[in-house]
Design goal:
Radius of gyration of chain C: 23 Å
Oligomer: heterotrimer
Radius of gyration of chain B: 23 Å
Largest sheet of chain C: none
Number of strands of chain C: 0
CATH architecture of chain B: Orthogonal Bundle
Helix content of chain C: over 70%
Largest interface: B-C, 120 and 122 residues
CATH architecture of one domain in chain C: Orthogonal Bundle
Number of helices of chain B: 14
CATH topology of one domain in chain C: MetI-like fold
Structural class of chain C: mainly alpha
Distance between the termini of chain B: 35 Å
Strand content of chain C: under 5%
Shape of chain B: globular
Helix content of chain B: 55-70%
Chains: A alpha/beta (435), B mainly alpha (333), C mainly alpha (275)
CATH superfamily of chain B: MetI-like
CATH superfamily of one domain in chain C: MetI-like
Chain lengths: 435, 333, 275
């Protein structure tokens, strides 16, 4: 071994450089001390400044959102030419964990993008109530319910999100079904599925790797099963997990799986985007999709073109109705620690301006919260259908649930597909968790 | 992803007496750590001379960094774990978080899976050990294999997870391959009785190259004359491995065991997160993932801190128990 | 060791299969990166029908991977420098010098090996924030140094302990100072270990996602691996684009490995030779 050899590097007489060494070794502690005593603003991402606003989202990095962001920036720059705006696109996978770290440290972005429902409601402590600032936006925009908690509004919706059934007309035709009359009742859907499964294709593509499949199932079949009173009670927080209707919805999940409606390996298929990749690739007849963001009319149209059709939730029981479930999709909130909430709100206002949202609709294919936007020139038939269903729509059932109830439901849905738990047992656990 | 990487670093050979004044320090940590070691000698009253000050100056940056960014946060976390979340934010609630933790079925599954990891540990050590033996025997193509086997080590777990997601999907290449051999498709990541083994398998695939290199380094120290003697005595391969190689490599084996364990307990987060996210049905949760989910999606940082403390305690217990067990085992053989 | 007989060939077959299994996922990714989005949707597992370098160009442009590469380089170089400096200093002191509390301090550093990052994640960021280092390059360098230092110290200590004490003592008799011994003797003698530990630490810093994601919060400070992960987006269905990002990110790492594999393995081997 070289180290042991006596003729290694010569040791000459060396002058001690104690001072230099101490300098190096104290480098860390000095950095630490000087930095700790520095109470100034930290780094570029820190919020709380009045000449700079930081926005966190998971959209602005997307090329299709560029026109939207540009329009919003221009609108805001006209109002506040001196204020710099930085958009930070975070990976969605880690978005709420990152946000949690920022909330813990009470520093970070000034304006934050949120999904409507549980993710927002669990974090309202860190957000500024916006009710006094909304003005006429309250009239112009829709979808507020998903961003309200305890009577206060915490974010401004920019898109609507809903769950229609999309179908592939070519697959229907192949199965001997009329491609122009999609199922209106559950019995018709069952007949269609039987026919489609016989052709060797899947009736529905399903990705339940994250357990989100059950959210779509609950919200998309709910209107067809529940009575109006029951539906409204559920949203208001009076949820009867033991009711026959709720049981029926979960039983349908199991029955559909057992009847072979879904692709194999649903529990290992990612909903985004493997499930939709399968549907777009023509491997299945139907899919429960979205109306904004992705997995929607615009992205399906790219692959299926004129073969793409859409239908509202089928009526399952006598009391159920065929109503599209829709609510506020994503919206911008203002953090509680921002230096000037009104300034931050002005940016939110720009982000929800008609002009910006029109760009968002046209480029990204989102159904905007601004209902005055004209959608008749899209050239895609399905969007016309969806927009015509909006006035009668109802909020989504799963968004009323808390994050931990949803998490439990995700796990149970996978166990139900595997057959390792029963519907009754699952509903009991959910009832216990949903307090 | 992070802590995991430590396991992949290789120290060839733990020689505990290497630490001056700290003979077998790691093993006897339960002893009073400040008990004077034999190397220290009687304390002479002298002035602050260069050779007395310099050692402290040299270790100061490392000690400061570790204390400030590892131990201080650890104590803060322990403190935090005794407070509440949400409405009870910051309030002292005693051991309630720990009670909730052990009442949570998902956390219990996570602990059970830790047990599974410990069972898989011998495999994760034996595979590279065996491969290193073959490479040492210079099987045809050994140079190439040696390079290729190390390949996955240089890739980020996030990338490995994303690749295997596609390769192991139900209609993916892995099932096509075993289908061609006449075996039924396996839902590698979607069957709760299989998924944990799949992820462990991928973890081993991703890390065995590092252990292999460490073993190869260990082989370089094996006394050639012992091997020659074994050969002239007519010992077969199994006997040679058992009676010559394993005792000779006991230090290396210990080292690989400990680093592999650390890697498994702290380094599977990246893979899990991408490949199963804890599913199906919560079957593939590990404590790290549980901490991450409680901290993020569930917005329960204090509960996450309590889970962190349990994981840390587990690491210490397993780490020391293992060191003792292995020491005894390798000495006996 | 026995190297005789046809048994070697029997063993070589599974070993060759394993080599294929090791390479396959990489080739698979390369194949996917060369598909168009449409090609991927219609046929996920088939061979790409030609080269599509557009994906690589798109991945590079849409997410500013150039800036991210620069950030990764700065942070990796900085962290490795700090790790090698502090690691070799401490390793030298723990292995060759005698001082009170050396055992305690060594154990203190080693104990950090048993702390998984998730365990201290939240308070760690509070401390970093207090120091005003969140979202800065020095902050991430410090975070990586803290993460990989315990093992670096351990490795360097174990490597230096193989150098006979007599060498240090001889140097002292010649009148060398401690610092002089460190600079003129220990650094040159430690080269093989420093090289291999440096390369490995470099790989780990380059590949990290979690620490970087949490520390570097603004877009312009992202590191490459985080940028590539972000290509998956919330709902991205452009898998070929992601695969291209993966190829871009893995390429420098693979090149470094192919160039330095001898050093990586030999550095470790050199350290294990009994003196």
């Amino acid at each position: 071994m070289p180290a042991a050899s006596p003729d290694g590097p010569r040791t000459r007489r060396l002058s001690p450089r104690l001072t230099a060494a101490i300098g190096v070794s104290l480098f860390v502690s000095l950095t630490a001390c000087s930095a700790a005593s520095d109470d100034g603003t930290s780094g570029g991402a820190g919020g709380g400044s009045t000449d700079k606003l930081v926005v966190w989202d998971w959209k602005s990095g997307d090329p299709t959102a560029k026109a939207y962001i540009d329009a919003a920036r221009a609108d805001f720059a006209a109002k506040h030419p001196d204020v710099e705006v930085e958009f930070v696109a975070q990976p969605f996978d880690n978005y709420y964990t990152l946000l949690g770290t920022a909330i813990e440290a009470e520093s970070g972005p000034d304006v934050v993008l949120f999904n409507g429902g549980a993710q927002l409601r669990d974090r309202v402590d860190a957000l500024a109530p916006l009710d006094d600032l909304l003005g006429d936006n309250q009239e112009r925009l829709t979808g507020w319910e998903a961003f309200q908690a305890d009577g206060a509004t915490y974010a401004v919706p920019i898109t609507l999100q809903g769950m229609p059934f999309y179908y592939n007309k070519a697959v229907y035709e192949e199965a001997g079904l009329d491609p122009e009359t999609p199922p209106a009742t559950y019995a018709e859907l069952e007949a269609a599925c039987t026919a489609i499964v016989e052709t060797g294709k899947d009736c529905f593509s399903l990705g339940n790797k994250e357990g989100i499949g059950i959210e779509f199932h609950l919200s998309a079949y709910g209107p067809g099963v529940m009575s109006t009173e029951q539906y409204d009670a559920w949203l208001a927080g009076e949820r009867d997990w033991a009711s026959p209707e709720v049981k029926q919805i979960f039983q349908m999940w199991v029955d559909q799986s057992e009847a072979g409606w879904f692709n194999d390996g649903a529990n290992s298929t990612a909903k985004f985007m493997d499930e939709y990749t399968k549907f777009q690739g023509g491997e299945s007849g139907n899919v429960i999709g979205l109306i904004s963001d992705v997995a929607h009319w615009k992205s399906f149209d790219e692959f299926l073109g004129d073969d793409l059709g859409v239908f509202k939730p089928p009526v399952v029981t006598d009391q159920g109705s065929s109503v599209l479930p829709v609510e506020g999709g994503i919206g911008y909130a203002v953090t509680e620690w921002t230096a000037d909430p009104e300034l931050a709100y002005d940016l939110v206002d720009s982000l929800s301006s008609t002009e910006a949202l029109t760009a968002f609709y046209a480029e990204a294919g989102a159904i905007a919260s601004d209902t005055s936007i004209d959608t008749s020139d899209s050239g895609i038939d399905t969007v016309g259908d969806i927009v015509s269903w909006l006035p009668e729509s109802k909020p989504l059932l799963h968004s009323a649930l808390s994050a931990d109830t949803l998490e439990l439901m995700h796990r149970l849905s996978q166990q139900l597909l595997e057959g390792s738990t029963t519907v009754d047992d699952a509903l009991q656990q959910l009832a216990a968790a949903d307090k | 992803m992070t802590g995991s990487r430590l396991s992949r670093l290789g120290a060839p050979d733990i020689d505990e007496s290497s630490v001056s004044g700290a003979p077998d320090a790691p093993a006897r940590a339960h002893r009073r750590p400040d008990a004077p070691g034999p190397g220290t000698g009687p304390v002479r009253r002298r002035r602050w001379t260069e050779d007395k000050v310099m050692p402290f100056v040299l270790v100061a940056p490392a000690v400061l960094i570790v204390v400030l960014l590892r131990l201080v946060p650890l104590v803060m976390g322990a403190n935090f774990s005794l407070t509440g979340d949400g409405d009870a934010n910051g309030a002292f609630i005693g051991l309630d978080n720990y009670r909730e933790l052990f009442g949570d079925e998902v956390f219990r599954t996570a602990l059970k899976n830790v047990g599974l990891l410990l069972l898989a540990l011998p495999v994760a050590v034996a595979v590279p050990g065996l491969l290193a033996t073959f490479l040492f025997m210079k099987v045809p193509g050994h140079r190439l294999y040696r390079s290729v086997y190390f390949f996955p080590v240089v890739l980020s777990p996030v990338i490995i997870g994303a690749i295997f997601n596609v390769v192991l999907s139900f209609d993916g290449p892995a099932n096509q391959l075993i289908g061609a051999l006449g075996l039924g498709p396996v839902d590698w990541l979607g069957d709760s009785s299989v998924a944990m083994f799949t992820v462990i398998g991928v973890h081993i695939w991703a890390t065995f190259g590092m252990a292999l290199v460490i073993f190869m380094a260990g082989f370089a120290t094996v006394d050639q004359s012992l091997l020659d003697a074994a050969r002239s005595d007519g010992a077969n391969l199994r006997q040679t491995v058992w009676h010559v190689i394993i005792p000779e490599l006991s230090q290396t084996i210990q080292f690989v065991f400990v680093t592999t364990m650390i890697g498994m307990l702290t380094g599977m987060f990246g893979l899990l997160y991408i490949m199963t996210a804890g599913g199906p049905g919560g079957a593939t949760y590990l404590p790290e993932l549980y901490i991450w989910v409680q901290q993020g999606q569930m917005n329960r940082p204090a509960l996450a801190s309590a889970a962190s403390m349990v994981l840390f305690a587990l690491m210490i217990i397993v780490g020391f128990a293992q060191l003792r067990l292995i020491r005894r085992a390798t000495k006996e053989s | 060791m026995p190297t005789r007989g046809p048994a070697r060939w029997v063993i070589a077959i599974p070993m060759a299969l394993l080599a294929v299994a090791t390479l396959y996922p990489l080739l698979f990714t390369l194949n996917v990166s060369q598909k168009t989005r449409r090609e991927y949707v219609l046929d996920r597992f088939g061979l790409a029908d030609g080269l599509h370098l557009d994906n690589v160009v798109d991945a590079w442009q849409t997410s500013d991977l150039g800036t991210y590469t620069l950030n990764s380089t700065i942070v990796t170089v900085g962290s490795v420098a700090a790790l090698l400096l502090f690691g070799s200093m401490a390793g030298f002191a723990f292995s060759q010098l005698q001082f009170r509390g050396s055992k305690t301090l060594f154990l203190l550093i080693l104990s950090a090996l048993l702390i998984p990052f998730q365990v201290i994640m939240v308070p760690f960021f509070r401390v970093l924030g207090e120091m005003g280092l969140l979202d800065t390059h020095p902050g991430l360098i410090l975070a990586y140094t803290a993460q990989f230092l315990p093992f670096t110290v351990f490795l360097m200590t174990s490597y230096y302990s193989r150098i006979p004490r007599e060498i240090v003592e001889a140097a002292r008799v010649d009148g060398a100072s401690t610092l002089g011994i460190y600079r003129r003797l220990m650094l040159p003698l430690g080269r093989p270990a420093l090289l291999s530990v440096g390369i490995l630490n470099g790989l780990f810093c380059w590949n990290d996602v979690l620490i970087s994601l949490l520390t570097m919060q603004s877009q312009g400070n992202r590191t490459l691996m985080v940028g590539v992960t972000a290509l998956r987006g919330q709902y991205s269905d452009n898998i070929p684009l992601f695969a291209s990002g993966v190829v871009i990110a893995a390429l420098p790492v693979l090149v470094v490995y192919l160039f330095f594999q001898k050093q990586i393995t030999e550095g470790v081997t050199a350290g294990s030779t009994k003196g």
